[in-house]
Hints:
The protein is of the alpha/beta class and 532 residues long. It has helices spanning 18-41, 53-73, 108-117, 126-135, 174-178, 411-444, 454-487; strands at residues 80-85, 91-97, 141-146, 157-160, 191-192, 197-202, 210-211, 217-218, 234-237, 242-245, 249-254, 257-266, 277-279, 282-285, 294-297, 301-303, 311-314, 318-334, 338-350, 354-360, 363-366, 371-373, 379-381, 384-387, 391-396, 404-408, 493-498, 502-506, 509-513, 517-525, 528-530. The chain has a 22-stranded mixed sheet that branches. A four-stranded antiparallel sheet has the order 4-6-10-9, with no helix packed on it.
Amino acid sequence: MAKYNFFKKKPQMTSNSESYSSSKPEMLKMMEKIRTNLQNDFSDSKENANGPGPFYRILEKEVKKHVEGQKREQLPVDVLSLFYVSSDCMSAYVCVLPPLNDGKEVDQEHFLEDMRYEGITSGIDQNAVMELVNSRDYLRIRKIATGQYPVDGIDGKLEEFYERRYAQTPELDEEEMLAGHDFRKKNLIQTIREGEILCRITPPVPAQNGFDVSGSTLYGREGAAVRMPQGKYTSVFEDGLVLRSDISGIVVMENDNFSIHSQRVLEQDINAGVGNLRFDGDIYIRGNVDDKVAIEATGNVMIVGDVRSGKIISGGTICIQGEVKGTSRIKLKAAKQIQCLIMENVTASAIEDVYAGVIADSDVISEKGSVYALMGRGLIFGSSVTSGKSVYAKKIGNISGCVNNITLGLEAEFERRKKSIHDELEEINRTLEQLRKNISNMQILGKSHRNDSQKEYSDLVDQRTTYGELKREKLDELDELNKSLRSIRVGSIICENIYPVTKINIERVSMTIEQRESDCDIHLQSGQILLK
């Protein structure tokens, strides 16, 4: 449909009255001029409820009244300013009907007053007003006022320089280990140095309010502020817009906040020049470990390089991305897991699982977990492996005929430890008995209160207290061993190939593999070891 097609329709007028019939030619002329001007002035506008089109339809009635007013009495009719406000109140239009019979012309004062009476007070186009008044260009629809739409504010933004990692532990789960997952790709640890930026906030841009032609304020939506995700060991700087780390460590998410866990980060080889390391927290080493140094941490020990000699003790997990291979015996001890690519000439003990690609010429113990050799070559040979649960490997032994010892269940290991604890308790009891006698003798001789012997007496009492506490610790350790032994239920030895000579021990039942076996599920059933 062509724009403003309705203008082509002639105004439909009734002939119910003589006065109307007599005024019809003049009225038609006015409407025709308004229509022509409207088409010329608003040819690019669309016909919609907020444009000037509806105003044209209203004008027919007003023009009729304006013309008839002078026909009846032949009286002067002053100029008439007709206003129209769009349905959204954002545009105001005017059409000035000419004076008749020497009526008053348009003037600025009365025009502005008429506009005020109509409630049009804001966004007035003063140039359009002046042009209309000066040119007295009647019968033309003009836009006389325009409102201003509000501009919504812009939400603040949070620029993060570290990933939101919630599971910041290096431990592998059973599914990952059974699938032969490469633990080096887990990539859970994010280190940070003191003073480095964690995230930066861009503040919100405020809204810009608008108005309509009546002067009413139109409010924009305010931009939402961004919460600073500040956690432990972080500080806000630079007008509250930047979050920095207070210490060097690991970046973790806690309750949707960036927090820093204490960690010592060493980007160098650890050798005799550096010396032994002990740290309350995690240790992250970007280098090799050599020269028989000892590394001890209450948390995890993460090593990117190789371990060629030394001793590593962890209160968490030991994760070594390189090889653990030395000419002298290397010792690893972890309260959680041990993970490494190659474990050769190693004594390793973990409370939980042990995971490696190759275990060679080593002694490995997993107390409450399983031993997995499924990554890469997945090989165990020339080693003694003890697991509280199960052992999984692609291959145990090889064609060289090396001796392998695979044990499920920790009865033998626990018995050895229990004997060691009992021996220690006997020595502690002997010492306590001797301290008791010495303290009693001093009391009998009255030396407990004499100035020359009071310090000696006090030292004996302190020693008795210390050995008493040590005895309680050993008794608790013994009780914990008994509980652990009762709670562990052994599983199976699962491997694709097993070679002689491999000795199997499951809960005190033994057998020796004397020929190659494939697709093995070695387990205990009715007091006998079954291969499949």
